[in-house]
Amino acid sequence: MASQIRRALHSLVLNIAEGSADNSDIEFARFLGISIRSTYETVAGFDLALLYELISEEIDEKIEADAHELVKQLSAFRNSLKSN
């Protein structure tokens, strides 16, 4: 479980970095979309950790709130990029 969550977190960060290296807003937006999906994957991993009683409900709620804010920020940034 921890390994899968780590991979999702790495994917989130590395896709932002990879997308920022491109000169295309369309490609960057695509990589930001992948990062958003990785954020949801991370949350799902923590939801499973809660289900298996590996973390507390308080920690899970904090992760979900932080993830929600991150998705809002990434989505706003993606929407601000030129679409052509």
Describe the structure.
- The chain is mainly α.
- It has a single domain, classed as 23S rRNA-intervening sequence (de novo design (two linked rop proteins), Up-down Bundle).
- Helices cover 83% and strands 0% of the residues.
- The longest helix is centred in the middle third of the chain and has 27 residues.
- The protein is elongated, with a radius of gyration of 14 Å.
**Unreliable runs:** none
Measured between the Cα atoms of the first and last residue, the distance is 39 Å
Biggest sheet layout: none
> What fraction of the residues are assigned to beta strands by DSSP?
under 5%
> How is the CATH topology named?
de novo design (two linked rop proteins)
H/I helix tally: 3
Shape: elongated
CATH top level class name: Mainly Alpha
Helix content: over 70%
**Secondary structure tally: strands:** 0
CATH architecture: Up-down Bundle
Indicate how many domains the architecture comprises: 1
Order of helices and strands: HHH
Q: What's the mean pLDDT score?
A: 95
Q: For the record, what is the CATH homologous superfamily label?
A: 23S rRNA-intervening sequence
Helix- and strand-based class? mainly alpha
